[in-house]
Specification:
It is built from 19 helices and 17 strands. It has 521 residues and is α+β, with helices and mostly antiparallel strands. It folds into four domains: 2-143, Beta-Lactamase; 177-282, 2-Layer Sandwich (Beta-Lactamase); 287-359, Helix Hairpins (Orthogonal Bundle), CATH 1.10.287.130; 367-520, Heat Shock Protein 90, CATH 3.30.565.10. The strands form four sheets. It has a five-stranded antiparallel β-sheet, sandwiched between helices. It has a five-stranded antiparallel β-sheet with strand order 7-6-10-9-8, sandwiched between helices. Strands 12-14-15-17-16 form a five-stranded mixed β-sheet. Strand 6 and strand 7 (192-195) form a beta hairpin. Helix 16 (405-421) runs antiparallel to helix 18 (479-489). The radius of gyration is 28 Å and the shape is globular.
């Protein structure tokens, strides 16, 4: 800890005295064993503006997925830890602190983190940044836990626990036999210890042909799938699960199968056993249905586009001819027709975007553009459509990004439209534009109904709509999906922060073109 404190003190002195050389010192931090982050205390929510390579390794997140977030995202839903308040209070007071806190990697794995944060102040004594040094102390915590367990257990407790574990293993075997999904239990050498009836029936094999046999030799080595073997051989030594891994394989006796695999090490009372549980979901029919649905959407959208364009043209001709029409009801009817044709055209365009994304044919016209001007122009256009709504914009970056400007405008329009649509009792939306490290961060905050945790996990999936809004608000659930894919194609991230009843904030980042790129543009 003294080493880390000395390291931070030196860094703070360099930042204070030689801010122009900050990039040089930040690069040097990448050689550190500890995870190091720097947050900008001058910006809202104290976002992360720098992380070193060790922090990416510890957390499992990439640089692009970290920048712009507040570091509390590492605690996921584990929000009752008192250490969170200690950190919050220290930041408010501008003081350093040291805590041991539970964090979660990108794959959901728990790890214990020893965190030391220290403020950086300017000449006026104002805290401008915080530096955080993080060390993974999971092994130490586990050793401490094991030592406490060893001291507290007596012979009677061991016997009781053994009986309890046996009961749980029996219970697990019962679940395996009754669940309507193919399940396998393997030992450390990937030999099948048990296979439920659903597996035997689905893959047309007997228990004698399966139990006691190595997984990769089943059915004349039909399961000798390289990608599956590579993943499974990494489960036991790391304790990391394989979650929703798709395997496409041709089985000689039953044909092609597309399977969704989940594999876990079996754990009893905090202790991992040399057992692997594999759940196999047959999604062959679902994938085929999705393919047919995508084909239908693509064909239907294209076929509807042509007659709709013709109808739009005819309506415009009638509108021009009706300038002096004596019947205002006739003119009003034409205007309504034109409005509904526009709405239908927008819907078909979104369906076409979805089909292009699914097929991988979405086109990007990448050119440098002024992101500040683009965002402000998009907001001005929205204001014209909803004159009674207050859209407040704050911040500026002066940055140039490279991308498809029309698609970025589409994302902004979609986020602003959703913010207005799902805030029926509010007339205000806040938009923030900030520079975070080498990224631009755009935030759209509404004061509406908010989104619960389960819906936040799925809100960017295609055609997904939260259950509590399906009946109240019309829609297909494709706007956020398209927006998410557009930002991903621009090497940025789109995420949401929300709580029920407290509104929502949608954020996305875009990489900034460096100075060399600007000079050559």
């Amino acid at each position: 800890m003294e080493k880390n404190t000395s390291h931070i003190d030196k860094l703070k002195q360099h930042i204070h005295n030689k801010s122009n050389d900050l990039d040089l010192y930040l690069k040097a931090l990448n050689s550190a064993y500890s995870g190091i982050i720097i947050t900008d205390n001058m910006q809202h929510d104290n976002p992360i503006i720098y992380c070193n390579t060790a922090f990416e390794t510890i957390s499992g997140y990439s640089h692009n997925e970290i920048i712009g977030h507040n570091c509390r995202f590492l605690q996921a839903q584990d929000r009752s830890q008192p250490e969170r308040q200690i950190i919050k209070d220290s930041i408010i007071r501008g003081e350093e602190c040291k805590v041991e806190i539970r964090n979660y990697r990108k794959d959901g794995t728990l790890f214990w983190n020893e965190l030391f944060i220290s403020p950086v102040k300017n000449d006026e004594g104002k805290v401008t940044h915080f530096i955080g040094v993080q060390n993974d102390i999971t092994a130490r915590k586990k050793a401490e836990h094991d030592l406490r367990e060893e001291k507290s257990h007596v012979e009677q407790k061991i016997q009781e626990r053994t009986k309890e574990l046996q009961d749980k293993e029996i219970f697990l075997s019962s679940i395996i036999e009754t669940v309507r999904e193919s399940l396998l239990v393997l030992d450390a050498n990937y030999v099948v210890l048990s296979a439920n009836k659903h597996f035997l029936n689905s893959f047309k094999v007997s228990s004698e042909e399966t139990v006691g046999k190595p997984l990769f030799e089943l059915g004349k080595k039909q399961w000798n799938i390289n990608s599956l073997k590579e993943l499974l051989t990494q489960i036991l030594p790391t304790n990391n699960p394989v979650i929703d891994y798709e395997v496409d394989n041709l089985f000689p006796h039953i044909g092609r199968k597309v399977m969704l695999l989940n594999a876990y090490r079996i754990e009893f009372e905090g202790h991992y056993k040399d057992r692997i549980l594999i759940a196999i979901e047959d999604i062959t029919e679902k994938k085929e249905q999705d393919r047919r649905k995508d084909d239908f959407l693509s064909i239907a959208s294209h076929e509807l586009k042509t007659p709709l364009t013709t109808i739009k043209g005819l309506v415009q001709i009638l509108q021009r001819m009706s300038g002096d029409h004596p019947n205002p009801k006739f003119v009003n009817t034409l205007d309504k027709m034109s409005s509904y044709v526009d709405r239908l055209n927008l819907l078909i365009t979104k369906l076409l975007d979805t089909a292009k994304i699914q097929s991988g044919n979405i086109e990007l016209h990448m050119e440098p553009f002024d992101i500040d001007k683009t965002i402000r122009d998009a907001i001005d256009n929205i204001k014209l459509a909803v004159p009674g709504y207050e859209i407040c914009i704050s911040g500026t970056t002066g940055a140039i990004v490279e991308g498809d400007e029309l698609q970025i405008i589409q994302v902004v329009n979609n986020l602003l439209s959703n913010a207005i649509k799902y805030s029926p009792d509010s007339d205000k939306v806040d938009v923030g534009i900030h520079k975070v490290a080498n990224f631009v961060k755009i935030s759209v905050r509404d004061y509406g109904m908010g989104i619960n945790y389960q819906d936040r996990l799925k809100i960017f999936e295609r055609f997904y709509r939260a259950s509590h809004i399906q009946k109240k608000f019309p829609g297909l659930g494709i706007g956020l999906y398209v927006s998410h894919e557009i930002i991903a194609n621009h090497k940025g991230t789109l995420w949401v922060e929300s709580e029920p009843g407290e509104g929502s904030t949608f954020n996305f980042t875009l990489p900034i073109i460096n100075n060399d790129d600007n000079d050559g543009a």
